[in-house]
Amino acid sequence: MILTKVYSMLKKSKLFKLLIFISMVLSFSYFLFSSELIKDHRKKDEKLEIAKNLVKIQIYPKLEYQFDIMKEGVLQHIDRDYKYDIVPDRISDGILLRTNHEVPKGTTVQFELLSPAEVYLILCHDQDGGYLELIEQLSIWKKQDQFPQYDIYNGMHGMRMDMYLLYAEPGVYKLPVTIKEDACFNIVFKNQT
Q1: Residue 145, class by beta-carbon neighbours within 10 Å (0-12 exposed, 13-18 middle, 19+ buried)?
Q2: Is 106 a member of any domain?
Q3: pLDDT tens digits, residue range 121-149?
Q4: Taking 50 as the threshold, does the pLDDT of residue 34 lie above it?
Q5: Quick check: is 32 in a domain?
Q6: Residue 104: pLDDT band by 50, 70, 90 thresholds?
Q7: The total number of structural domains that make up the chain
Q8: How far apart are CA 58 and CA 64, in angstroms?
Q9: Which of 86, 60, 61, 64 is nearest to 73 (CA)?
């Protein structure tokens, strides 16, 4: 009975009506936001399924790796919080292969493409594991004018990058073995079909 009286008094109050309106707006906003998150999650799942159908990876010595979608704000490595701030259109929405931030000397990556793809090797200019001198000797890799950049608001370390492109048919490819410690790199795969 007391609750009924309180409710009927509140029901007549402008403040109560405003609170009801605000809660409805917040509920609707939450619904829209969660719908977008579900769409983004589904899109990411679809892209990662594409990765499984596009490429198989082996890293020696065995290192942990992950696939993600290459876009602004994506994590660069699995053991750091660095994110790509600038991503050229040509690699946007590609399949990003990320490993540790500093890969040890003696590491190589082998990938098997299951369909034609553009393969982009992205290197940190100052911490390339020796890849810059090794890749320059391989005529199948073409240096690109544009490259992604990470952590651009915290100094220069993510501003000086190099990117190489390989137009590849289905088959097995192997990157050279790193000849220096602490290689900082990513690979992006873009399906050509």
Answers
A1: exposed
A2: yes
A3: 999 888 888 888 888 888 899 999 999 99
A4: no
A5: no
A6: very high
A7: 1
A8: 10
A9: 86
Nearest CA to 160 out of 190, 118, 132, 119 is that of 132
Domain boundaries, position 77: 55-191
Q: Alpha-carbon distance 181 to 92, whole Å?
A: 29
- Identity of the residue numbered 28: F
- Does residue 2 sit within a domain? no
**105 domain-assigned:** yes
Position 163 scores a pLDDT of: 96
- pTM attached to this predicted model: 0.76
Q: Give residue-wise pLDDT tens across range 154-184.
A: 878 788 899 999 999 999 999 999 999 989 9
Distance CA(128)–CA(106), nearest Å, equals 13
- φ/ψ of 67, rounded to 5, equals -105, 150
